[in-house]
């Protein structure tokens, strides 16, 4: 059976998930099916078929499991938006259509995927500009204490989501070109290889940018995502664990300095370390505390979709969907949800292993790593294992920028997979 | 009535969870199928590749293959800019190597002149005389 045929058969599952989940939520909320009960499965089926058709038309031999996995997450996400913020459902459905269009566009542009590696510094500039654009006056917006929004015309978006993609492309292109020089450093200080200063510069620049984002935008999520993704790629490219250790040490040192110097960074750490403290739990850490109650209240099988009280968590539809799902679907539900993410990341890394060129290997590896890292950071934040950040649970949480960016990420992974299938058969 | 509604609601909720696990199982089976296919592909005897000309003509390679105009060569080139015994392709320690046999017009890999022995990766283009040949994985039988 061809890969596309396997994909088509698997795509029935996300539609069934959307139908049952949407029905359960509508029954619990209104006592009867409503428009959303039809709209959610139709949207998942329509998106699935459209993207499947786009892959067929482009003659793709790409992996068969990635698209169904992502759509299962989308289905759960739409059910949760209906549950947690029904007023936002039409908007999220519109973003889904935009995401699908972006996916289709990324399947054909550029025609040669390797061409992405041709202008690495353009990607670097674009990524940094996007990442730092919320700091600009007029268009930059501060929402809930973090400055990660840009308002242009009628719409707002989080540029860090697009920046993530641009920077992964840059890292992959840069490291594919220079990895020999960085890996085979002529001098060593103890276990740490010291590459020529010119090649060290990007590492230090990335660290400085990560610190700037942390302090000026108060966006711990983007800091971890950008710098963590960079370290993962550096490790993939050079095989030198010493670089990762050095990078983590830099991050820890910078983080400690930021905590000591800037009260707003310290406040974040405070919330994470003692959320139940008397002076915090009805104030700064209220959101996290409610999230933890929801997480704990779920038990083994949860309160049933629509049966919990996740609306007690402020901004639950974008920041705390994981805890809301845990409350209503229980441990059984989140275990399956995390397994879907695990399969997605595993598939991404498997695609990286088999990619035909160094650039495509690093590109796929970087994309998979950034998806996995984003999931870890936000799930860890929801469970108070790491400080809470404003990034979203990929494909699941409400939010247009994230959905569109992750669909583009998916399309790029599928294209790398397609390239390796072609290189093999040719 | 009330009781029947509750039962129906829970039936739908549990169906959702069951479908989630059903999907995971199906996706897992599909992944295993894909992995098995990859393993079968990787298990094909190594050291076998094709040289593909611009005309899409394929020359299958052995572990050691000579290239040149001479009819005794493993890959016979009808190119008067090629020497009679022009170059040697070898599969050694998991990699392909090309060695120029002191040919008149030289051997190029991706446009760079080969001095002595050079490594060859899949997708690289070998220039011998006026003939361009690309090293590729073997065609399916």
Question: What secondary-structure arrangement, pairings included, does this model have?
Answer:
The complex is a heterodimer of chains A (426) and B (141).
Chain A: H1 3-10, H2 12-30, H3 35-57, H4 66-84, H5 89-108, H6 120-132, E1 140-143, E2 146-152, E3 155-157, H7 159-183, E4 187-189, E5 192-194, H8 197-216, H9 220-238, H10 241-261, H11 263-273, H12 286-297, H13 316-319, H14 321-354, H15 358-382, H16 400-425
Antiparallel strand pairs in A: 1-2, 2-3, 4-5
Chain B: H1 2-42, E1 50-53, E2 58-60, E3 64-68, E4 75-76, E5 87-92, E6 95-100, E7 107-109, E8 112-113, E9 117-120, E10 125-128, E11 131-136
Parallel strand pairs in B: 3-4
Antiparallel strand pairs in B: 1-2, 1-11, 3-5, 5-6, 6-9, 7-8, 7-10, 10-11
Give a quick set of tags describing it:
heterodimer, A: 426 residues, mainly alpha, three-stranded antiparallel β-sheet, two-stranded antiparallel sheet, 16 helices, 70% helix, 5% strand, B: 141 residues, alpha+beta, six-stranded antiparallel β-sheet, five-stranded mixed β-sheet, 1 helix, 11 strands, 29% helix, rod-shaped
Write up what this structure looks like.
- With 426 residues, chain A is mostly helical.
- Chain A is 70% helix and 5% strand.
- Chain A has helices spanning 3-10, 12-30, 35-57, 66-84, 89-108, 120-132, 159-183, 197-216, 220-238, 241-261, 263-273, 286-297, 316-319, 321-354, 358-382, 400-425, and strands at 140-143, 146-152, 155-157, 187-189, 192-194.
- In chain A, the strands form 2 sheets. In chain A, strands 1-2-3 form a 3-stranded antiparallel β-sheet, with no helix packed on it. In chain A, strands 4-5 form a two-stranded antiparallel sheet.
- The mean pLDDT of chain A is 88.
- In chain B, strand 1 and strand 2 form a beta hairpin.
- The model of chain B has no long low-confidence stretch (mean pLDDT 85).
- Chain B contains 1 helix and 11 strands, in the order αβββββββββββ.
- Chain B is rod-shaped, with a radius of gyration of 27 Å.
- In chain B, the strands form 2 sheets. Chain B has a 6-stranded antiparallel β-sheet with strand order 2-1-11-10-7-8, with no helix packed on it.
- Classes of the chains: A mainly alpha (426), B alpha+beta (141).
- The A-B interface holds A 3, 6, 10, 13-14, 16-17, 20-21, 23-24, 27-28, 31, 63-65, 68-69, 72, 76, 301, 304-307, 329, 332-333, 336-337, 339-340, 343, 346-347, 350, 354, 356-357, 423-426 and B 5, 8-10, 12-13, 15-17, 19-24, 26-28, 30-31, 33-35, 38, 41, 52, 122-123, 136-137, 139-140.
